[in-house]
Every structure is written in C-alpha cells, then in structure tokens.
Amino acid sequence: MLIRLLTLLYGLDRLLKLAAVAHFFRQPALLPPATWPSLSLIQPVSRSRHDLRRTLGSRMALRYPGPMQQLLVCDDADSETQQLCHELMAAHPQASVSLLTVAPDGGAIASKLAKM
User: Fold this and answer.
1) How is residue 104 annotated by DSSP?
2) pTM above 0.70, yes or no
3) Are 32 and 64 spatial neighbours (Cβ–Cβ below 8 Å)?
4) For 71, phi and psi rounded to 5 degrees?
5) Which own/partner pairs from 54-58 qualify as long-range (CB within 8 Å, at least 24 positions apart)?
6) In the 8-state DSSP scheme, what is residue 63?
7) pLDDT tens string for the chain (116 positions)?
8) Are 91 and 57 in contact (CB under 8 A)?
9) CB of 103 within 8 A of CB of 73?
10) What is the rounded CA–CA span in Å between residue 46 and residue 41?
11) Bridge partners, residue 72, by sequence
12) Cα 105–56–111 angle (5° rounding)?
C-alpha cells in the first residue's frame, strides 16, 4: 500500500513538473528592444598553442544588431600576435576592432589582469 502511495505521489510530482515546464515555454517571446545597447568585447591576446587565427576570426565575424566594439590587447613585445591581429582586422573591415598593446607587468609578458 505504501509503495503504491509513494508511486502515485512521484507520478503526480512529475506531472506537475511537466505542466510547469510546458507553461513556461508557452509564454510569448520577448520583443527585441527598439535600440540595442552598445557592446564592448575586451580580448586579452597571448601566444597560444590553440588556433588563435580561427578563434579571433570567429569573434570578428560575430553579428550584433547594435554598436559593437572589439578591443584586442597584446603584449608590446609580441610582434607575431600583433601581426596576426592586423591581418584579421584587414580581413574583417566591417568589424570595429582596435588593437592595444600593454607593457609587461613584472614578467616577460603582461598578465591578463594588466591587459584588462
């Protein structure tokens, strides 16, 4: 008897949860704002074993309905990464991208905190 009661309560709990989820997703979608806020993306860039060209290229290809500015922050002495950033900026002229350089803050390269 107790097993049947607990099974019934569990089934009722699942049914109520499904009803709550269905109610949530039936709500109308929000309307887009009349004017989208501006957006600034700060990307501290360092040499990496990962495909930096592909990563930064996909970020530059992002579409946002409002004004979007991207700030790429490289080390002063990292000419290789700076060259890559310049190449990507030339390949994506539609993107609003600025390249900033930062001096090292105690080591050979600047920390992400210093870049931010």
Assistant:
1) -
2) no
3) no
4) -115, 115
5) 56/84, 56/85, 56/88, 57/88, 57/91, 57/92
6) -
7) 889 999 999 999 999 999 999 999 898 888 989 999 999 999 888 876 678 888 888 888 888 999 999 999 998 888 888 999 999 999 989 889 999 998 887 777 777 777 77
8) yes
9) no
10) 16
11) 43, 99
12) 10
Q: How many residues does the chain have?
A: 116
**Could you give the 3-state DSSP secondary structure of residue 74?**
strand
- For residue 98, which amino acid is it? S
How is residue 107 written in tokens? Answer: 């080591």
What tokens were used for 17?
Answer: 């949860």
The CA-based angle 11-19-2, given to 5 degrees, is 15
Residue with tokens 């949530």: 24
**74-91 burial code (b ≥16 CB/10 A, e <16):** bbeebeebbebbeebbee
